[in-house]
# Entry
Amino acid sequence: MTELELISRARTHGDKVALHTKARDFSYAELLDRSATLAASFLGEADDLEEARIAFLAPAGFDYITTQWAIWRAGGVVMPLCLSATEPELEYALTNSKSSRVVTTRDHADKVADLCKRLNLPLTTLEDIDVVSEKPLPEISSDRRGMILYTSGTTSKPKGVVTTHANIQAQIESLVEAWEWQSTDRIPLFLPLHHIHGIINIASCALWSGASIEPFPHFTMETILRRVSEGAYTVFMAVPTIYVKLIQALESLPEGEREKIILEFSKLRLMISGSAALPASVHEKWTELTGQKLLERYGMTEIGMALSNPFHGERRPGAVGQALPKVEVRLKSEEGDLVTEEDEAGEIQVRGPGVFHEYWNKPEVTAESFDDGWFRTGDMAVIETGYYRIMGRLSVDIIKSGGYKLSALEIEAALLNHPAICECAVIGVNDDTWGEMVAVAAVLEEGAELSLDSLREWCRDQLSTYKIPKRLLLVDSLPRNAMGKITKPAVRELFQ
Ligand code: MCA
Ligand code: AMP
# Structure
């Protein structure tokens, strides 16, 4: 029988705790049992979902993991939705992927019920599923599609990144090997589960290894600090914004309390930062405070993780280390030459079994994203004394804020629907906490008025929280080049 390796490995972990929650613990055996009955229910009369896209909306926890496994085991493609997405964003993902059904919990059903009705999509609430007995599940070969994640890019609308089971497995195996995941590991999971940082690096690596996850619906400083002080974890993974916030929180605590938490942080076997640049100053501050040397790594939805500082050896502030196992990395200069020398900049290109299969329904865009079999990341880097250092992105239209990748073009398209806005340009401005913050320069319609507060209020129905502009500058005209194209570097200068 061809069964996913994640599933057969789970059988060997049996009664071990897979998920530790406030309510109770869930064993690997329970994940297997529930996902088998859910899979049977999703299948109904069918023998195989045959790569039907099943969208689901659930916070981190038993329901999320068992739904993900059930869809995989029934032969479907998992499409986790963003919990904070707005209706237009959800509609786009559901229609673009041609999802065949939406699965959610009673608590979240209101968020999607009207939309599903309008799109004529079946909506399943997990609590209301009639428990059917298990049935034979299909064979899942590793070259089948397993997941679609929507990611923003240099196009206005997000693209669906499709990975096969083989891609997912390669991404997991690379990290399990490099970071020496162990079955005794315990890790908190507070990152969103519609991106690979949470899905692959944390959840899937932990469950592959027989480790234990403590899931949270989102990051809450007080809870996380309390659990750290109770010695709840051995591994910790977060985005740079969270480390900045942790430093601020620790520094504001009374000394006794602070020392207790710091002592527990210092005992963790591994603390990792990624998804955006970790400023060297934050890296150094964290070491000064806790004695921990953060391991910074670099990755992307399309490729999984590519570069990492070592588990053993020098973890250099401001650098992302070297290629991970199963990953080949090269730099290509702007002139199209391979970079062979240190200190010479080039675009990061990646090849290997973890690299995604395709952009959903976009064969031309997929083809254009590869250079002779190497995926073009659009990130520039340089090698300095053996380690890669990320220099930035080729496109000014990609913003990284709080670890989320945002498309300036997507935000501009939404803002242009505002009745007061005639023209606008969105950029990311540097910010100590968020890395970059969304800022908009706007030309208003004649006689119109607009404040940042009212714009933010209007955006709430259109854009997820992290895409909503944090700064607004009203201008008479936008800077343009001789061809009439808006020049974003000049827009950035307006904010200085
Ligand atoms: C929220 N706020 C912001 C932003 N987000 N302000 C500026 N910029 C932002 N991006 C404001 C809100 O408006 C609110 O303000 C206040 O902060 C609290 O909002 P909330 O949503 O509660 O924020 P939070 O819960 O503190 O969230 C911060 C966070 C979250 C935990 C860092 O953004 C997060 O989970 N980020 C991780 C994303 C992630 O996993 N990315 C990985 C992508 P007010 O109080 O005034 O209303 S995968 C990836 O990148 C690749 C593959 C990789 O390498 O990993
Ligand atoms: P996403 O498309 O959400 O997967 O985000 C991937 C992007 O995050 C990459 O293309 C990089 O621009 C950025 N990124 C991830 N990790 C790092 C890092 N350690 N340093 C700098 N940028 C990073």
